[in-house]
Amino acid sequence: MSVMLTPPVALLAYIGLVALLFGFGRLLAPAGRPSAAQSSLYAGGEVAATSKAAPGYRRFFIVALFFAVLHLGALVLATAGLAGGAALGPALWTALLLYLGGLALALIILLLS
Q1: What are the boundaries of each domain within the chain?
Q2: Per-residue pLDDT tens digits for 43-99
Q3: pTM of this prediction?
Q4: Distance in Å from the first CA to the final CA of the chain
Q5: Is 30 helix (H, G, I), strand (E, B) or coil?
Q6: Phi, psi (5° rounding) for residue 46?
Q7: Dihedral angle computed from the Cα positions of residues 105, 109, 112 and 113, in that order, rounded to the nearest 10 degrees
Q8: 47 pairs with which residues across the strands?
Q9: Which whole-number Å values give the CA distances from 71 to 28, 29, 67, 74, 104, in the listed order?
Q10: How far apart are CA 10 and CA 21, in angstroms?
Q11: Do 73 and 99 contact (CB within 8 A), yes or no?
C-alpha cells in the first residue's frame, strides 16, 4: 500500500483518472455546431471593439520614477556609513545633504507634474 502513495505512482494514477473522466465527459457532451456568434468577440454583454487600444503610460512612468528615486535614495543613505567603517566626515555629510536636496527637488517635480 505504501508504493501507491509514492509521488510517481500517484501522478500516474491521477493522470489515468483524469483521462477516464475526460473521455466520459466527451461521451456525455452533445455534438457542437459552430456558429458566427461563437466565433465573434464578446466582452461583458457587449460586442467588443475591434480597434486597437492605445493606453497612456505617462502616469505609470512618473510613479515608477518616483519609486526608483526614493528607493535609490534610501539605499544610498543606508549604506553611506559603510564605506570606510569610520564616522561620517563633513564631506560625506555635505554630499548626503546635497543628495537629499536633489531627492526632495525630484519629489516635488514628480508630484507637481
Answers
A1: 1-30, 58-112
A2: 777 776 777 766 777 778 877 887 887 788 778 777 766 665 556 677 777 877 787
A3: 0.35
A4: 68
A5: coil
A6: -130, 155
A7: -170
A8: 42
A9: 58, 56, 6, 5, 13
A10: 16
A11: yes
